[in-house]
UniProtKB/TrEMBL annotation:
Belongs to the SLC34A transporter family. GO terms for biological process: intracellular phosphate ion homeostasis; sodium-dependent phosphate transport. It comes from the Eukaryota. One of its GO terms (cellular component) is apical plasma membrane. Its main location: membrane. The lineage of its organism: Eukaryota, Metazoa, Chordata, Craniata, Vertebrata. This is Solute carrier family 34 member 3. It holds the Pfam family Na_Pi_cotrans.
């Protein structure tokens, strides 16, 4: 029987918005299911002596004094592999499960991802070169901006080892997410929806409104980060009341009240497990921004 159209929902009474949400839910379900199956498959295959050999080869370092070149080689490998597959998303989706099973370390995956960001710019360059003659200059200019933007990210966040902040931040956030699983969903909701929508709405109201609202918030965030760093490294420089955040309500410096509220409302979210009896884990006394990074 011949098809009546060119897509799945031809002839249905659903509008485009409903069809879009159905396809979005289906694609996310397929993506998550694929990642879970990949991780389980890798866990069943990469174990014992095989995992040790692969881990040793991938995370190997050049002998002294050329050990610092290992990361730059990983950047080149990430760029080349992304150029081959023509998609940084495919390369990232292949690396993340290997990190999940412990085959690739965070320190090795970080330069691979940076190289992948550079390699994905080749797609834009090739597309720009195929542009019409009257649009060639503008297309190449935009593609070079994409390339230099990613190169600037490497110069800023990798060249100086002290500036490789995404590595410790990722580890700390991973530890928090392992203890409070719902933090990952909250992070995605705020980072990709609420905060961009808030910035977009304030920008539509005008630059003055955006500066008046965003400036104090950024200043407050910078002040909290500075106090947290001083609490860790030089607490004697702070007044006694600021050496800990115990003077604040519990819900402002701990995720435990939020965890009880969310897990009581949403039964699908597992409640945070208590640490073993032979270990002592103290709840960090800090505002929520720091707890999400600790």
């Amino acid at each position: 029987m011949p098809l009546l159209g060119h897509h799945l929902f031809v002839g249905s009474s659903l509008n485009d918005l409903a069809i879009g949400f159905i396809l979005l839910a289906g694609s996310l379900l397929t993506l998550c299911s694929g990642l879970v199956l990949i991780v389980r498959l890798l866990n069943s295959i990469l174990h014992g002596q095989i995992a040790q050999v692969i881990r040793k080869v991938i995370n190997a370092e050049f002998p002294f004094p050329f050990g610092w070149l290992s990361g730059y080689l990983a950047i080149v490998v990430g760029a080349v592999m992304t150029f081959v597959v023509q998609s940084s998303s495919v390369f990232t989706a292949a690396i993340v499960p290997l990190m999940g099973v412990g085959v690739i370390s965070m320190e090795r995956a970080y330069p691979l991802f940076l190289g992948s960001n550079v390699g994905t710019t080749t797609t834009a360059l090739l597309a720009a070169l195929a542009s019409p003659a009257d649009m060639l200059f503008s297309a190449v200019q935009v593609s070079l901006i994409h390339l230099f933007f990613n190169m600037a990210g490497i110069l800023l966040w990798y060249i100086v080892p002290a500036f490789r902040l995404p590595i410790p931040l990722a580890k700390k956030f991973g530890n928090v997410t392992a203890h409070y699983r719902w933090v990952a969903a909250v992070y995605l909701l705020f980072s990709f929806f609420l905060i961009p929508l808030a910035v977009f709405g304030l920008s539509m109201a005008g630059g003055v409104v955006l500066a008046a609202v965003g400036g104090p918030l950024l200043g407050l965030l910078a002040l909290i980060i500075l106090i947290n760093l001083m609490q860790q490294h030089c607490p004697t420089w702070l007044p006694h009341c600021l050496r800990s955040w115990a003077f604040l309500p519990l819900w402002l410096h701990s995720l435990q009240p939020w965890d009880r509220a969310i897990t009581s409302c949403c039964k699908c979210c597992p409640q945070a497990q208590d640490p073993p009896a032979d270990t002592t884990v103290k709840e960090p006394l800090s505002p929520l921004p720091r707890l999400l990074l600790s």
